[in-house]
Structure formats: structure tokens, C-alpha cells
Amino acid sequence: MRGGRLTLGEGTALYIGGVLGPGVLALPALAAAEAGPGSVVAWIGLLLLSVPVAASFAALGARYPDGGGVATFVARAFGSRAAACVGWWFYAAVPVGVLAGAMIGGQYVAEALGLGRGAGLAGAVLILAAAFAANHVGLQLSGRVQLALCAVLVLLLVVATVAAAPHLSTGNFTPFMPGGWASVGSAAVVLFYAFSGWEAASHLSAEFADPKRHLARATGITLGVVGVLYLSLSVVTVGVLGARAGTSEVPLMLLLERGVGPGARVVTAAAAVCLTFGAVNTFIAGAARLGAALGRDGVLPRWLAKGSGAGEVPRRSLLVQAVLTGALTAVVAVAGTELDPLMRVTSAFLAAVTAAGTAAAVALLPRRQPLWWAAVAAVGFTLVVLVFSGPLLALPLLVAAGALVFCRRRGQGTGRPDAARASAASAPSAAADSPRS
Q: Which residue, 54, 52, 50, is CA-closest to 62?
């Protein structure tokens, strides 16, 4: 970083870190369980969806560079009440997303040690406890550590794909779409978890030395890198693991074991714990800051505002996140809830955020221009994902209704985009991943 501003290389690295996340350690198996080999179609579809979404956010970031990211765009386009809904969606999604992320790390440890689901959930609780404790004392991972964790993830994906590729069998791709197109759409919903980093990365727009030039380039490079990694991993997972691709909770470990040998199990588990802790720690920190900022601006109870100042630790907001996450963990433990529904709930919230951001692009970008049409396409594609969310769509709708009722009673959200922008500047960022674990 030069002069406190991101160079193209640094910004691109952060963008790649924003879109990639440890969720990809489990998502290929979850998608294969839903759609079989047809899950590859869902991966391709979402990669294509990422092009107009990424282009829309890059265009908005170049025109309105600000740390508030999506909520800044939404506030400019639709007012601060709409931006408040975006803030509430982030705040509500984090307990679900961080639990899902922690469960991924716990599952890899349990598998490496030959233990059962209970041990995996216990590992998730330990990861969560460590992350909340670190945030309580104000300990944050540096940007360099986050980038190092991202580099580890990229290396794991590359090694797993290259090492396992020679064992690929075309026979594992038949029947190709046993559940029909509906199963592909359902798989796309859970996979949206892996593609939700664009709105989080938009918070970095103001940090580029030259947003108008660098944002478009960083976005293009990130699309290329992420596209190759995701598509290669999805094809190899199905082609090498076959039926096991849809039944294993640790597909990356199986690929590395097949290509490298049994010793890869422990290494993969250790890497998975580091990756999930980094993502969980970042999202908890972001959610705590977001809650304090929303409280400061009257969009959440003002009791949460304590600790919203620069350099302060927002412990009250952190406590709320800890209680919500703890309650959800208890429910998951008692009900025996698996990872898939948690991923879907998080994806529903993040898809709602993306829909709001791309709708803002339609309202703000010059009409009838190529970027405007890209934004229109992005809105359409994202709405399709929301439709496939089915009953889960009720969750962001209920949270948005709660935000609007709260703002009306408090007299907030009457055209205060600056406040909305300040509130959202602390929204959890997958880049600093992605909810997204």
C-alpha cells in the first residue's frame, strides 16, 4: 500500500480474498448432494451471474467510492430506510454465517481424527469461542494475515485440483442431471454463499489509489481467477469422487488424500481451522462494529452505540452477536441441523443484499448504457436466486419489515444517506474474508 491507498495488485488480492472463502471447502459436496453432476451447471450459472453483478458494483464504486459500499449505493438510490434494511440483513446473517463457517472447520478436524458429528460441533464451538474472545479484548488479525490465509486457501484449491485431476472418470458424470433443472436451481441457492463477496468487496472502493481505473481491472482479474478455481474444483470433485461427492462433508480432504496421500488429512484439517477462524473472526468484528454504528444512528437501539468510536471495542454489540450465535448453536445441536440449511439461510440474506445493490445500480447508472444493462441483468439473475430460496425468502422480508417498523417508530430513515453510509461502513466484509464464511 502506498500513501495509505491500495495499488492495483493489493486491491486485486483483497478482492480475490473477498469472493473466495472457506465455505468452498464444503460447498462442492453440498451442491453435488442436491443436483449430482448437474451441480456443475449451477457453478457455471453463478459464474456467469457474477459478471454483471461484479460489473455493477465496480461501476458504482468507481462513481461513488465510499467505505459504506452497498448501503451507500442503496442510500443514494432509495434513501436511508432502504439502507437500514441492508444493514439489518448483514447483522442478522452473521450469526448464521459464522456458525456455518465454524462448522466447516470442525467437520474437517473431526474427519481427520476419525470422530463423529458431536466432535465436529464441539470444534465449531471452540472456534467461535476463540473468535469472540479475541474480539472482546480487541485483538484483530492484520490485513497481511488475512491475505496470507487467502493465499493458503488458493494454494489448497490448486493443489487439490491438480493432484486429483488424473483420477477423474467421465463415468461419474452420468446420469448428469438426476434431479432435473429444479435441483440445479436449488443447488445454485446454496452456492450463492460462495459468490456473495462482491457486495462485501465494494467497501474497498474508496481505498484504491485510482478507483476509476483500478476497480474495473481488479474486478476483471478476480473474475478470471475465481472462475477458474471454482469451475475446476467443481468438475474435479464430481469426476473424482463420484457418488461420494454428495455424501462427504470434507470433499477437499478427500481430493487431497486421493492425489497426495493419507498424510494430507491432518494438513488439510489444520488449514481448514485457520481459514475458518480467520473468516469467523473478521465477520464477528465487522458485525459488532456494524451494530454499534447502526445504534449510533438510531437504526438499532442506541444502547448498542457504545464502542462505535474509532479504536473502541463495541462490546455491547459483540455481546448481542454472541448471544444470538450461542442460541443458534444450541438449537443446531439439539435439532441435529446440518450445514446445508445454514448455508441456505445465509445465502438468502446475502442474495437480498446483492439484489438491493444491483437495483441501486439500475437507479444510479446512466440509462441504456452497457453497464446499465449489465445491472438490469444482475437484478434479474439475483431475483431468480431469491425465488429458488423458496420459504427462506420470508426471512429477509421479515427482517426488512422489522427495520422499517423500527425506523418509523424512531423517526429515522427520512432521507439521511450520510448516516446510512456511516452505518454500513462497518458491515461485515468477506474481503477483510465473505457471510461469508
A: 54
11 residue type, one letter: G
Q: Kindly give the residue spans of alpha helices, DSSP state H, lying in 165-246.
A: 180-191, 197-201, 211-241
Q: Which three cell numbers stand for residue 253?
A: 480432504
Yes or no: domain 8-424 corresponds to CATH 3.90.320.10: no
Domain ranges in the chain are: 8-424
Residues linked to residue 6 through DSSP beta bridges, in sequence order: 208
Q: CB neighbours of 69 closer than 8 A, spacing ≥ 6?
A: 61, 199, 200, 202, 203, 204, 205, 424, 425, 427, 429
Q: Rounded to whole angstroms, how far apart are CA atoms 56 and 378?
A: 8
* Separation of alpha carbons 162 and 156, rounded Å: 10
Cβ-based neighbour number of residue 203 at 10 Å: 28
pLDDT digits (tens, 9 = 90+) for 96-130: 999 998 999 999 999 888 888 889 999 999 999 99
314 phi, psi to nearest 5 deg: -80, 75
